[in-house]
Amino acid sequence: MNTAKQAIELAISAVGWGYGWGGERQTVQSLGGWAKAEAWLRKRESSRGITSAQVEANVAAVLKYLRSCPDPENTPLVDCSGLIHWVCGIADTNAKGLAKKCEAYTMAPPTKDAGILRPGTLLFRDGQGSGNGVADNETHVGIYIGNGEVIHAKGQAVGVVREKYSGTYWHECGWLNGMTADVGTGAVTSPAPAQPANPSTDPETPQDAPTAPSGGESAQDGALRFALTRILKKGVFGQDVQWLKRAMQAMGFGLNLTPSNNCFGSLTKAAVQAFQRTQGLEPDGKVGPLTVAVLGGTWGGKP
After folding, report:
1. Overall domain count for the chain
2. pLDDT greater than 70 at residue 76
3. Which range marks the domain in which residue 223 is found?
4. What's the chain's average pLDDT?
5. Which of 81, 75, 78, 40 lies closest to 59, judged by CA?
6. What pLDDT is stored for residue 261 in this prediction?
7. Do 19 and 54 fall within a single domain?
8. Does residue 194 register a pLDDT over 80?
9. HEC sequence for 251-302
10. Which residues, including other chains, have CB under 8 Å from residue 54's CB and lie 6 or more apart?
11. I need a surface site. Which of 190, 199, 201, 217 has the fewest CB within 10 A?
12. What's the pLDDT score for residue 223?
């Protein structure tokens, strides 16, 4: 099982993923293309016992959302419990099953004041519309990350979102048995931003970063210093991508990028290629030791 800090970092990295009922990080590519992905989505939605019209509407909403993402064919699909069991590092189960894994004494309706919640607390919606403190009818789950914010796979049209905690939306809360509380009260362990209301307006939406990268960044003599320990290229995600974007912008490149977003998408690749051309480097769009050095960073250590 992951610690609270690890779970929060993974949850933050997943903001922007798509929503797929029963999803366990499948992608259009892993499912064999758009036609097969659509068929998979339709099969999953049909298993919910909803009308055929609702099934088609939900499938259309997911496909529309995916096509708005920076890398549509490689954007993972999860549902609420699929997200939480992945970030927490536990076996797959539904919201009710997750509630049963929580310490009984904390299974109580959360307050409207998020200040009493520990970062890493799981939040639940009850099918009856109000919490009874018993793991019996939970239908939705998210994770509290601190500073009054929650991350959850909210729905087909919006995917995985990061939003303000609401004591009326969430009915119950619980702490997973065995999870280590290694995050300070109110702390959020990553600067990744909240999911934009309309993903299509944000060219590089945050994606999956299975582990926090090593390295770092710092300011020294007015210049940005940063260190990388892996090659960055299109399709990778993480805080080190944010460091890269800020370093390039400090040198006048990639001014159309959003540094707080942790996705290395098409725009970042184009900016890297433009920078590499001006420096006489091979414009392959990949950031390795040579490109890092020209950017003023270091490879394999601290800045």
Report:
1. 2
2. yes
3. 216-299
4. 79
5. 40
6. 80
7. yes
8. no
9. CCCCCCCCCCCCECCHHHHHHHHHHHHHCCCCCCCCECHHHHHHCCCEECCC
10. 45
11. 201
12. 40
